[in-house]
């Protein structure tokens, strides 16, 4: 049973989470453990294929995703040629702003934005989502360097997790490299 106002605080906690797709014996995620406090902004980084989006998909398994999309006041038709990829990303951001969720996930939200709109998105995350927990998957480091914490994934595991300033001090660390 999921309560109507769930989640109340926006805390996210993973304990020993592993994920295997379609009866495959290969783990997509292995022994993932972390806690995100309410209202924290978390950047999630790593090379392609290390499990960033899979990590987020485990969070969404609590919802029937189609119901969330169909409950919006307007619809964007799939493959609509009237909007660029960047414009579609901004529309999705506007949806998130309108819904005032306690947990907001931005998966490569800046991937198709120019530097001006990237800076705008960072400002929106800081101001509009101040009372939301934000998980932001990004390849552009400037998109997540202002996050409270950064999670670095490699080989389907968390290899670093901490404040960006602390991670940048470790010259042997993956985030530094």
From TrEMBL:
GO terms for molecular function: ATP binding; ATP hydrolysis activity; ATPase-coupled transmembrane transporter activity. Residues 12-176 form the ABC transporter domain. The keyword Transmembrane does not apply. Keywords: ATP-binding, Nucleotide-binding. One of its GO terms (cellular component) is membrane. The keyword Ligase does not apply. InterPro entries: AAA+_ATPase, ABC_transporter-like_ATP-bd, ABC_transporter_C-like, P-loop_NTPase. It holds the Pfam family ABC_tran. This is ABC tran, MMR HSR1, and/or SbcCD C domain containing protein. It comes from Asbolus verrucosus. The lineage of its organism: Eukaryota, Metazoa, Ecdysozoa, Arthropoda, Hexapoda.
């Amino acid at each position: 049973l999921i309560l109507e106002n769930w989640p109340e605080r926006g805390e996210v906690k993973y304990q020993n989470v592993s994920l295997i797709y379609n009866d495959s014996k290969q783990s997509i995620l292995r022994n993932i453990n972390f806690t995100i406090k309410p209202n924290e902004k978390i950047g999630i980084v790593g090379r392609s294929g290390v499990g960033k989006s899979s990590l987020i998909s485990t969070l969404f398994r609590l919802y029937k995703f189609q119901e969330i999309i169909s409950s919006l006041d307007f619809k964007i038709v799939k493959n609509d040629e009237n909007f660029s990829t960047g414009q579609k990303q901004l529309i999705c951001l506007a949806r998130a702003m309108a819904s005032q969720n306690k947990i907001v996930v931005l998966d490569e939200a800046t991937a198709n934005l120019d530097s001006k709109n990237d800076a705008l998105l960072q400002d929106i995350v800081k101001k509009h989502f101040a009372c939301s927990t934000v998980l932001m998957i990004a390849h552009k480091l400037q998109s997540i360097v202002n996050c409270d914490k950064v999670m670095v994934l490699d080989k389907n595991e968390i290899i670093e997790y901490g404040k960006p300033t602390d991670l940048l001090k470790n010259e042997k660390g993956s985030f530094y490299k």
